[in-house]
Amino acid sequence: MADIFERLVKNYGPIGQHRQRAHGYFAFPKLEGPISSRMKFRGKDVIVWSLNNYLGLANHPEIRKIDAEATEQFGLAYPMGARMMSGNSNQHEQLEAELAAFENKEDAILLNYGYQGIMSTIDAICGRHDIIVYDAESHACIIDGLRLHTGHRYVYKHNDIEDLQKQLDRATALIEKQNSGGILVITEGVFGMAGDQGKLKEIVDLKLKYDFRLLVDDAHGFGTLGKTGAGAGEEQNCQDGIDLYFSTFAKSMASIGAFLAGPRIIIDYIRYNIRSQIFAKSLPMPIVIGNLKRLQMLRTMPELKEKLWHNATKLQTGLKERGFDIGATDSPVTPVYMKGGVEEATAMVMDLRENYGVFASIVVYPVIPKGHIIYRLIPSAAHTDEDIEQTLEAFSATKEKLDAGVYKVTEIPDMADVHAGRFNYIVDKVKNK
Ligand SMILES: Cc1ncc(COP(=O)(O)O)c(C=O)c1O
Fold first, then answer.
1. DSSP 279-318
2. Alpha helix locations (H) across 75-154?
3. Closest CA to ligand 1's atom 3
4. Residue stretches of the chain with pLDDT short of 70
5. How far is the CA of 433 from the centre of ligand 1 (A)?
6. Number of domains within the chain
7. What is the pLDDT at residue 237?
8. pLDDT tens digits, residue range 199-227?
9. Where in the sequence is the domain holding 379, given as residue range(s)?
10. Do 276 and 358 lie in a common domain?
11. Is 290 near ligand 1, meaning CB less than 6 Å away?
């Protein structure tokens, strides 16, 4: 018989295989100091483009104050137990009511985390005869939700409405054949990697032709899109056609937890059937009170969203003017597409961090095809014009070096060397090229 542990340590997985070289620098880096556009990385000041702190609320003095006061008053324990048993409170219900009103839905339910909340929602509402039709680039939490689904699932090409119709034709035919079940379409308001919005309006319009319910994960659209910040549904003027609207609090609200909004009778059904909430302790009171405050600021301080968009537009326009490919983003998420190997990408990131003071996350093979590099920059209301200008300069300078082959190193820099202060062979090699 195989020993499970033995198998695991033979193959640490696609990213884990690089852990010894990457840990603490490319993977699991530590950003220190107060959360803002400039933080400390390994003791050095860096401009940070990796945080989903869209509205700059993470370290806002009013937020820090309310978080501290609520913790002082309630501690982290209250309320104890799951909502259904003993962990309910007026504040939990108030937050749900305010979220529902903001999203123009009848009711909402709080979820402890977005990831398990979406998974558990899919599990709660879909039976084995139902068919789920979902976008190919859906977030991992949607994919893991599908793994709980015992019925059929059909994937459609990313944002491809023609292919979605093909899958809806297939699903409709199967449901008619089995004479039971319904269809749930799942997409995102904004796709977090490429920054393009889901084609919600076109999907909602398909309801004229097909019978289905629509669940939208709007983690990146909530607070950033739409006139009032209600998200991608409001932005595309089709909020009413979204049957279940989901967002996490972890991005524009810079907090933790999530919610799902929709028709009262359905949210009530979910409330009594969603296993991740029924069998888990409810959100602690300081989180709920902190989220009430964040929602209030999100609603009543449009200048935060305006500042975010000022920064996003400045960054994206600046990158395009300098010849960078940022794809088809129509949200603040700003991908920068480049060509190069994994080793080159790591040397380039090191140069950016060490010599230019810019901290950005990269995505490389095996997450994306070999030979490609994606930088993912997340602007926020907390960034300044100076942060953006300095970053644009740094990107131009390092891209020139990339194209000239300066970053062609034979292997990923070894973090054992980095931690021992012996990493300058890379940093110095590329510094003044
Ligand atoms: C699209 C999307 N859905 C869900 C989640 C998960 O949310 P949470 O961090 O609250 O678990 C994320 C977070 O990265 C996300 O980007």
1. TSPPPPHHHHHHHHHHHHHHHH-HHHHHHHHHHHHHHHHH
2. 90-102, 114-125, 140-148
3. 219
4. 410-433
5. 40
6. 2
7. 98
8. 999 999 999 999 999 999 999 999 999 99
9. 4-54+303-431
10. no
11. no
DSSP 414: P
Rounded CA-CA distance 157/21 in Å is 36
Is the pTM higher than 0.85?
A: yes
Q: Do 218 and 316 belong to one domain?
A: no
332 CB within 6 A, ligand 1: no
Contact of 131 with 183, CB cutoff 8 Å: yes
Q: Are residues 346 and 227 in the same domain?
A: no
Distance 245 CA to ligand 1 centre (A): 14
Three-state helix/strand/coil letters over 180-210: CCCEEEEEECECCCCCCECCHHHHHHHHHCC
Q: Are 185 and 133 in contact (CB under 8 A)?
A: yes
352 and 380 part of one domain: yes
Pocket test for ligand 1, best of 141, 217, 283, 378 (most atoms within 8 A of CB): 141
Residues 384 and 415 in one domain: yes
Query: In this structure, are 241 and 337 located in the same domain?
Result: no
- C-alpha 132/C-alpha 222 separation (Å) is 24
Do 373 and 316 fall into the same domain?
yes
pLDDT in tens, 133-173: 999 999 999 999 999 999 999 999 999 999 999 999 999 99
Answer yes or no: do 271 and 327 share one domain. Answer: no
Q: Ligand 1 in contact with 123 (CB < 6 A)?
A: no
Cβ of 284 closer than 6 Å to ligand 1, yes or no, is: no
Report which ligand 1 atom has the smallest distance to the Cα of 118: 4
Domain with residue 19: its CATH number is: 3.90.1150.10
Instruction: State which ligand 1 atom lies nearest to the alpha carbon of 258.
Output: 10
Q: Among residues 242, 266, 300, which one ends one of the domains?
A: 300
